[in-house]
Amino acid sequence: MSPTQRALLLGDRSQRNLDILGAVVLFLGTFVAYAIDLFSVAGGIVVLPFDATLVGVAAAGLIGYGRGALLPAWLSTLAPYLGFHAEWGLLSLSSHLLPGKLAFLFDPVSLGVFALASMLVGSVAFGAGYLLRVGVDRLRASLA
């Protein structure tokens, strides 16, 4: 049975709440990982940081594998980007005053790029996880 469009986008309320809590943890974890140099940026012009993208792809893939919903997958892909952006804006721009840091943090262009990338990357990762789960289920059914 295929899920409805609403179920695919929003999913079950309790699972969605857990996935959103997971996105908050991903935001904080990515912020801390960049702050303590566990994750790093090689330099140059950074549009989408690799480490944050990797964390978001893994989270969205796991949500897809668990037959979760697309919206939490997008939020779980967006959260690491925002964690990176917050660390960069609040801790790495040491020469700026607080208003300048906040202006950087809430820059609509950066937030739009992160949102669009999250939707694209998150959808692909979610789809890959979902298809992997379908394949595993069919393999189990054929072996049983």
Task: Provide structural commentary.
Keywords: Membrane, Transmembrane, Transmembrane helix. The protein has 144 residues and is mainly α. The chain has one domain. The chain is 77% helix and 0% strand. The chain is built from six helices and no strands. The longest helix is centred in the C-terminal third of the chain and has 36 residues, at 108-143. The radius of gyration is 17 Å and the shape is elongated. The two termini are 20 Å apart. The mean pLDDT is 91.
Distance between the termini: 20 Å
Number of domains: 1
Strand content: under 5%
**The biggest beta sheet, please?**
none
- Average pLDDT works out at 91
- Our Rg estimate from Cα atoms comes to 17 Å
The count of strands amounts to 0
Overall geometry: elongated
Q: What low-confidence regions span 5 or more consecutive residues with pLDDT below 50?
A: none
Helix content: over 70%
Instruction: Give the class from helix and strand content and strand pairing.
Output: mainly alpha
Taken in chain order, the helices and strands follow as HHHHHH
The DSSP helix count reads: 6
